[in-house]
Every structure is written in C-alpha cells, then in structure tokens.
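Q: Structure tokens for this one, please.
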Amino acid sequence: MRETVLISLLLWIMVINVGKIWPISRGEKYYQNLKKWYLLANKGEWEKAKLIEGKLKTEDIESFIKKNKTEELKKRLNELTIKNQKNADDWMEIAVLLYRLDKKDEAYKAIESAYKLDPIREDISSIYFTYRTSLLLPQLP
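A: Here is the predicted structure, written as tokens:
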C-alpha cells in the first residue's frame, strides 16, 4: 500500500514537471510567439519579427499594424490631447503615443506630467526615473 502511494506520488510529480518543460497547450505557445512578435514590432525590429510571422494568424498581425499606423496613433493622440481632465493613465498613454511617433522630448514631458499627478505609483515613477536617467546618458553615434 505504502509503495503504491509513493509510486503514484512520483508519477504525479513527473507529469506536472513534464507539463512545465513541454507546454501542453498550443494556445500557450501561440501566445508566447505573439507576445514576442509584438515586442519586436514595437521596437522596430521588423527583420526578426518577420521570422515569427509564419507562426501567427494574419488577422493578429493586420490588427496590430492597423492600430499602430501613424494616422491611427495621431488620431488617438488628438483624442487624448483635447480631453479636459487628464489623469495619470491618460498622460502615460500620451507618452507612449508620442514615443511611437518619435517625439521623445514631448514623450518625456508627458511622463513628467503623469509623475506629477501620481508620484507614488510604482510603474509611473519607475518609467519616469528610467527615462530621465536615459536622457542624461551621452548619445553614441
């Protein structure tokens, strides 16, 4: 009896660990590839992103590209800019949009505005101080 319980326990532990080593779900693997593609696309590393595209659905790629076209970014930026009462989240979204539109100085000002509104929020203060420090570093050619 004791051996049976011990063997059952060992088999159960092995099955759980095999699931961690080899993901059981194809959806999980797909989601990992999609996140990696999004990250590469956001960084502008299109050559590396193209290597993953074959593993993704075209509608996911098209949706991302559509939402991140310059016209769409400018449209969303305009919507947020004309908003009267902006909260810290609005300012952070403005910062992201400005950064993607390659307006880094304006993006920093938006991050600064978000930080002034909510200086104790960890995610905002982390981005604020990281971005501020990166502006102080000498730029390499």
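A few notes: The chain has eight helices and no strands. The chain has a mean pLDDT of 82.
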